[in-house]
Amino acid sequence: MGVCGECRVTVDGEAGVLACLLPCRDGLQVRTRS
Amino acid sequence: MTSTDIVIVGAGPAGIAAAQAASQAGAQVVLVDAMAQAGGRVWAQGRAVDAQVTHRAGTRVVAARGRELLVEDASGAELLRFERLILATGAREILLPFPGWTLPGVVAAGGLQLMVKSGLRLDGRRVVVAGTGPLLLAAAASLRKAGAHVLCIAEQAPRTRIARFAARLVRYPDRAVQALQLRAALARTPYRLGWRLAEARHGENGGLHVLLVDELQRSHAFDVDLLAIGHSLTPELQLASLLGCALHSDPPAVRTDELGASSVSGILAAGEAAGFGGWRKAWIEGRIAGLAAAGRVDDARALLPQAAKERAYAALLHETFAPRRDESPSITGDTLICRCEDVPAAAVMSCGSWREARLQQRCGMGHCQGRLCGTALAIHRGWPLPQDTRIPILPARAATLAHLA
Q: Across the interface, do A2 and B114 touch by the CB < 8 Å criterion?
């Protein structure tokens, strides 16, 4: 977790967020491709 | 800039124990951790931290110089100044490459276990768990509890070594009991010894076709939905290396004295960073380092007999489960070694050193900075783990790096 960076996504417009370190919450806009 | 007596990096068992011990001894303590809650990977449900400790969750250390750490969180970045630093940076899973290891459905056993602990259900899903180490059994038990149908647990260490390990486990009754409980929970799940991963291919209905090879070179095939792999753990040493702490290479660890002091004055290491060995070792080493850093050396010394026992157990784990080349999965020329930069084995095998593999093939130059391929190449090529760490040690925002200017 937090190591390989294979799970990078864009969350609420911020690119390069590691999904494995970010807790889910209602309303998150997650995009897997930019 | 903020200045603190003791900064601790990592809020797993070692970091929490160190924070508690140092804070109760009267020191001002900041505990920095990348996860949203304290507990590390082993206590994924979260653990409480003493109220006197400043817990900086969701904060990553991206660089260091002298007595300062550059940390970044969702809202920004700052330099943290410390009088003493305790490295409790924990360990990561070793995932060894084999043909097909990058296919969807091949997952880290410990990672999958964490997802299950956070509520993922796997009802009716067929899973093979393969690799080496006691984590395989713990992961398999968690997956079964989440509804998975675990077809097989494949341990690559040979039967003779596992038998020797089991015989010596009687010196550690709590662990022997735990092992028996795990076996009981997995009573109908085959536990194969001396079996290693050979290949994963796309299977039917979006699943995987997995081949394993036993000690007599016979193949065993499984059709699964998920293949969970893990080849023991290795410490996170980038920050220690960046700060100039002397390291051991086999097994990888920060070089410390018995109280956790590294070769750099004022910097200590505890838990997995001081050598892979599990949460009990981490907890006691964390307490010792926390007390020592707060100046309570006699209290720290009083805990050394307990630490010695845990360190002996860690040595036993290493002797039994550290992946060895002739027992590890075979690779072919087109097996990807560096999955960040898509570098196949053939391109790396002709290189004479890490440096050459980086400069000529971009191996280890991607997002993970060699955290995955470094261990694979330590095993397949005998190259020491990369220790020429440079900043930033983790990808960071440009605005964060501007703090170093």
A: no
The string of DSSP codes covering B64-130 is: EETTEEEEEETTEEEEEEEEEEEE---EEE-----TTTTSTTEEEHHHHHHHHHTT---TT-EEEEE
**Does the pLDDT at position B150 exceed 60?**
yes
**Residue of B342, B159, B127 lying closest to B224 (CA atoms):** B127
Query: Which residue, among A4, A20, A22, would best test binding to B if mutated, counting the most B CBs under 10 Å from its CB?
Result: A4
Contact B111 A1 (CB under 8 A): yes
CB B290 within 8 A of CB B20: yes
Residue A18 pLDDT > 90: no
Establish if B84 touches chain A: CB-CB under 8 angstroms.
Answer: no
pLDDT one-digit tens code per residue, B7-66: 999 999 999 999 999 999 999 999 999 999 999 989 988 999 999 999 999 999 999 999
Do B313 and B281 contact (CB within 8 A), yes or no? Answer: yes
Interface test with A, best of B367, B393, B394 (most A CBs within 10 A): B367
Instruction: Tally the C-alpha atoms within 13 A of residue B321's C-alpha that lie toward its C-beta.
Output: 27
User: Which pLDDT value is given to residue A34?
Assistant: 57
Q: Is B111's Cβ below 8 Å from some Cβ in A?
A: yes
Q: How far apart are CA B25 and CA B101, in angstroms?
A: 48
- State the nearest Cα–Cα gap between A5 and chain B, in angstroms: 6
Four-CA torsion B291, B301, B309, B258, nearest 10 degrees: 80
ipTM of the complex model: 0.86
Contacts of B100 (CB under 8 A, 6+ apart): B106, B199, B200, B201, B208
Nearest C-alpha in B relative to A18: B395
Residues in a beta bridge with B291: none
Asked whether B168 and B315 are in contact (CB, 8 A), the reply is no
What totals of helices (H) and strands (E) does chain B contain, helices first? 13, 21
User: Chain A contact for B365, CB < 8 A?
Assistant: no
A20 touches chain B (CB under 8 A): yes
Distance CA B308, CA B327 (A): 30
Residues β-bridged to residue B269: B87
Nearest to B368 among A1, A3, A23 (CB): A3
pLDDT value of residue B402: 95
